[in-house]
């Protein structure tokens, strides 16, 4: 039993899905709210102030992307995106504009509840960044989320798309350790079927661009036997 019943807002136009999801959430001691279009969903968001939003990408009025951006302009509330497409571009787009996790349809209610609990645990200890610019170590490293620009010691550094995706994922939850498989999916997509150590090559190149001491990295730290995590001290702007 939770200390306070968590409020979950579901914004999806498929009535069968929302009814099932609501039932599973309420069975797990959440308070569930349902809206079937984007405008009403935003109204309920500001009225209810939910602890988490389950948001469909495809809605009859506003798109899920528009709603996600609107929420991110004003709140750190975690968002789980729902999509009928498993395309890497759609998933990464959602993560880039502020979603915390995603699920592809069809999915089970039990699986969604598990994701909701995991995201709430993660975001309660590491809040979603609200600001468009994140700086670390008093400005040594700066990430501009608006234009996807990264600066090191005031100079723009050129990252490949894969390097940027890895860095952004690590930065978002600095206490989370990512396995190689997780980073491979983030950088290369679920269809990648090559050698998993390729992610070490991406990490090596990324470190060469943002670290001062490659033997004692400040930002991208190795968690031996598992993967990598972000270790930079944050100052948000």
From TrEMBL:
Keywords: DNA-binding, Phosphoprotein, Transcription, Transcription regulation, Two-component regulatory system. InterPro entries: CheY-like_superfamily (IPR011006), OmpR/PhoB-type_DNA-bd (IPR001867), Sig_transdc_resp-reg_C-effctor (IPR016032), Sig_transdc_resp-reg_receiver (IPR001789), WalR-like (IPR039420), WH-like_DNA-bd_sf (IPR036388). The keyword Iron does not apply. Residues 131-232 bind DNA. Residues 7-120 form the Response regulatory domain. SUPFAM superfamilies: C-terminal effector domain of the bipartite response regulators, CheY-like. One of its GO terms (molecular function) is phosphorelay response regulator activity. This is Stage 0 sporulation protein A homolog. It comes from Anaerosolibacter carboniphilus. It comes from the Bacteria. The modification 4-aspartylphosphate is found at residue 56. Residues 131-232 form the OmpR/PhoB-type domain. May play the central regulatory role in sporulation. It may be an element of the effector pathway responsible for the activation of sporulation genes in response to nutritional stress. Spo0A may act in concert with spo0H (a sigma factor) to control the expression of some genes that are critical to the sporulation process. PROSITE patterns: OMPR_PHOB (PS51755), RESPONSE_REGULATORY (PS50110). GO terms for cellular component: cytosol; protein-DNA complex. GO terms for biological process: regulation of DNA-templated transcription.
């Amino acid at each position: 039993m939770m200390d306070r019943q968590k409020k979950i807002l579901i914004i999806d136009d498929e009535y069968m899905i929302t009814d099932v999801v609501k039932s599973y959430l309420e069975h797990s001691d959440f308070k569930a709210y349902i809206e079937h279009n984007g405008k009403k969903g935003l109204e309920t968001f500001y009225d209810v102030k939910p602890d988490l939003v389950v948001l469909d990408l495809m809605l009859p009025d506003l798109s899920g992307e528009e709603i996600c951006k609107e929420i991110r302009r004003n709140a750190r509330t975690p968002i789980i995106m729902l999509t009928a497409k498993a395309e890497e571009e759609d998933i990464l787009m959602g993560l880039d504009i502020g979603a915390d996790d995603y699920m592809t349809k069809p999915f089970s209610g039990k699986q969604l509840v598990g994701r909701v609990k995991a995201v709430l645990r993660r975001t309660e200890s590491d809040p979603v960044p609200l600001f468009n610019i994140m700086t670390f170590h008093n400005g040594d490293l700066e990430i501009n989320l608006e234009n996807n620009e990264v600066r090191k010691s005031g100079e723009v550094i050129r990252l490949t798309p894969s390097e940027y995706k890895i860095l952004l994922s690590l930065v978002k939850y600095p206490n989370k350790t990512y396995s190689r498989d997780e980073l491979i999916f983030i950088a290369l997509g679920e269809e990648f079927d090559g050698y998993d150590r390729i992610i070490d090559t991406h990490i090596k190149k990324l470190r060469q661009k943002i670290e001062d001491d490659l033997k004692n990295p400040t930002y991208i730290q190795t968690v031996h036997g598992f993967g990598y995590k972000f270790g930079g001290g944050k100052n948000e702007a």
